Amino acid sequence: MTIPNSLARAARNAVETSALLREAPRPATTQKAQLRRYEVSSLLKNGDVVQTRHIAPALPMFEDAFCAFSRGSLVETEHGPMAIEDLMPGDSVLTQDGTSETVLWKGSVTLVPGREDSRGRTRPLTRIMADTFGMQKPMSGVIAGPAARLLGTPAHLRHLHGGAQILTPVAEFQDGMGVVETMPPTPVELFHISLKKHAVIRVDGLQFETYHPGVNAVRMISHSLRSIYLNLFAHIESLNDFGPLLMPRAGDGEVDAITA
Length: 260
Hints:
Blueprint: H1 5-23, E1 35-43, E2 49-57, H2 60-63, E3 69-70, E4 74-77, E5 80-83, E6 92-94, E7 100-102, E8 105-111, E9 125-128, E10 142-144, E11 149-151, E12 167-169, E13 179-182, E14 188-194, E15 200-203, E16 206-209, H3 217-220, H4 223-230, E17 249-251, E18 254-256
Antiparallel strand pairs: 1-2, 1-8, 3-14, 4-5, 6-7, 8-14, 9-10, 9-13, 11-12, 15-16, 17-18
Helix pairs in contact: 1-4
């Protein structure tokens, strides 16, 4: 039986990731990058779902593609709430405007939030208590990863974008009461999903964004690492394939602009 080109490409990418990483130039003055294992499930054009495993750098741009939702987070789908770990490419989720969109990609990674990496960096999680943002918002306690962004604007960021709502990293909502930082000393599995276009979905009664690398992604990553990064996504060929951002979002002290 002939293997579909799209399936062959996805399988080849998993192998090429390690080869590309070996070939990527490493400046003599920088410390060797820590590596991490990333699990990926992708919907191919022929309707097949392929699962691949990648060894890639533990850099923010890579980790942010995986570190949004913790195991047990309930995503609203056309058939009702579904745990993020059970959601698969090909399933349909409900977006903010009430439409149903197909999941094209899901990624997961296991890390220890409280453990420092080679650069002394930790990956704190954010715990959101039940009803913090109103009745059933969230429905029960939620633990979100460092890459998760909520639709909303905390008081200290209301000067951005004319006071309109933006997509904001969950850590910006931490107040020491209803929203608190947590760094478990044991491994935690985190997930993220990508649709055909950037969207806002409902998870545990809250509005979170789907994955998008941001409009500044091209400037954040070298050409050699870009190839390794793109190999994580069987459904795209270039960074432009992620499309425009749905709305402005806060991150790294600034608001990313919407691209046409």
